[in-house]
Amino acid sequence: MRVPFFRYSEMFKMYSSEYQGAIQKVLDRGAFILQEENREFDERLKSYVGARHAFGVANGTDAIIIALHAAGVGKGDEVILPSHTYVATAASVHFVGATPVLVECGSDHLIDPESAAAAVTPRTRAIIPVQLNGRTANMDKVCAVAVKHDLLIIEDAAQGIGSSFKGRAAGTFGIAGTYSFFPAKILGGFGDAGGIVTNDDAVATKIALLHDHGRNSDGRVVAWGLNSRLDNLQAAVLLTRFAHVDAEIARRREIASMYQTGLGDLEQLTLPPAPDSDPDHFDSFQNYEIEANSRDALMEFLKQEGVGTLIQWNGSPIHWFKELGFSAKLPYTDRLFSRCLLLPMNSMLTDSEVEIVIEEVRNFYRG
């Protein structure tokens, strides 16, 4: 590929000496579970997003499950979430005994507050706004729905790290927020990893128990819990990445500006908002999700020209998974998934590679 969608093999090379030093420190001490790096990572995460409490956990799915449990969501409850998300969001609701209720996304590809409000029933307990593509939803509108119907907000900010709405970080608007540190994320490790933040002291106490076998600070088991601790090696890797996260986001925003300049005049495309085009949003551009006329033909053309692209979730929103019992009618999301496409977006891209992507997209529409 002239421009791969993502170069996993290059991740280590970017900061190899720093990674080697951090990993060697852990190995030399034999410090693998809940050690210094874990504590430091939790402090770094809560400071970065502006939360009272933060916890590293094994992965982003566990993060949502634990947050739901800690918030008291369970059997008999309904939880509203957008269909435009990874199945893990809905699966987490399922595995706490609640029912996931799928709703539309809006033109920003994030949860549509009006669709969410229309889905509220007497059984609705919570709403999960999913902060996709490095953009935080309009949380004024989401919070208004939650307040009106007395709902909990638990944010799935797996793709939201570094983004904000009106100066407030993704993951900090509800009773809890969750993150994924999957390798391709802005803050990515070398395997599965996740995090949870909360400003609620009681919820924080429950999360602390739930993610470590129900053990309290004295090591005594006082509740049922899970084995969902962030590996100390991953914590060391993530701390190394944290030192570069602002530069990572700045580079992604540069690339987004290049795409806007190079593709913004094409009437066949709908691009994400350009950096700083909306004063309420600071976008970190985890992904660059466009809408494209003749999407499938464009993908094939770009593949033939050596440009990697991707449709999120293997091309399927959750409500298409009939095997899981879903039957929601979501025409806006249906149409979006005939048009949506991710262009390459990561800090390993060079300017010349971004220009290749732009040139080949333009070549396709020239016909």
Layout of strands and helices, then pairs:
Blueprint: H1 11-14, H2 16-29, H3 36-49, E1 53-57, H4 60-71, E2 78-82, H5 87-95, E3 99-103, H6 113-118, E4 124-127, H7 139-149, E5 152-156, E6 164-165, E7 168-169, E8 176-180, E9 194-198, H8 201-210, H9 232-242, H10 245-263, E10 269-270, E11 281-282, E12 288-292, H11 295-304, H12 331-336, E13 340-343, H13 351-366
Parallel strand pairs: 2-3, 2-4, 4-5, 5-8
Antiparallel strand pairs: 1-9, 6-7, 6-11, 8-9, 10-12, 12-13
Helix pairs in contact: 2-9, 3-9, 4-5, 4-8, 10-13
SSE pattern, N- to C-terminal: HHHEHEHEHEHEEEEEHHHEEEHHEH
The fraction of residues in strands falls at 5-15%
What structural class should be given to the helix and strand makeup? alpha/beta
- In DSSP terms (H or I, runs of 4 or more residues), the helix count works out at 13
End-to-end distance: 22 Å
The CATH class of the largest domain: Alpha Beta
What is the CATH architecture assignment of the largest domain? 3-Layer(aba) Sandwich
Main β-sheet description: 7 strands, mixed
Instruction: Kindly give the count of domains.
Output: 2
Q: Uncertain regions: pLDDT < 50 for 5+ in a row?
A: none
> Which percent bin holds the helix content?
25-40%
Order of the strands making up the biggest sheet: 1-9-8-5-4-2-3
Using only C-alpha atoms, the radius of gyration works out to 20 Å
Give the CATH H-level superfamily of the largest domain: Type I PLP-dependent aspartate aminotransferase-like (Major domain)
Count the E strands: 13
- Tell me, what's the shape? globular
The multimeric state of the shown protein is single chain
Arithmetic mean of pLDDT: 97
CATH topology description of the largest domain: Aspartate Aminotransferase, domain 2
